[in-house]
Amino acid sequence: MTNNEQRIHIIDDDEGIRQGLNLLFETVGLPCQLYHSANDFLVQYNSDLRGCLIVDIRMPGISGLELQEKLIEMEST
């Protein structure tokens, strides 16, 4: 994946949800990147990532809302 390629970033601790959303979006030609936790996303995050996030609100560790707060603090746009 190139950094400027837009993708849907799916962040959910439930593998079934991740895979189901991935299948749904890819059937209409929308590429996805899957992450099993907010921390997994943050480890791979860089400011060149493009696209949108679909984030589970309630996850072990960093919640979806906490991830949103961290991205705001990082001035992610």
UniProtKB/TrEMBL annotation:
<keyword id="KW-0597">Phosphoprotein</keyword>
<dbReference type="InterPro" id="IPR001789">
    <property type="entry name" value="Sig_transdc_resp-reg_receiver"/>
</dbReference>
<dbReference type="GO" id="GO:0000160">
    <property type="term" value="P:phosphorelay signal transduction system"/>
</dbReference>
<protein>
    <submittedName>
        <fullName>Response regulator</fullName>
    </submittedName>
</protein>
<dbReference type="InterPro" id="IPR011006">
    <property type="entry name" value="CheY-like_superfamily"/>
</dbReference>
<dbReference type="Pfam" id="PF00072">
    <property type="entry name" value="Response_reg"/>
</dbReference>
<feature type="domain" description="Response regulatory">
    <location>
        <begin position="7"/>
        <end position="77"/>
    </location>
</feature>
<feature type="modified residue" description="4-aspartylphosphate">
    <location>
        <position position="56"/>
    </location>
</feature>
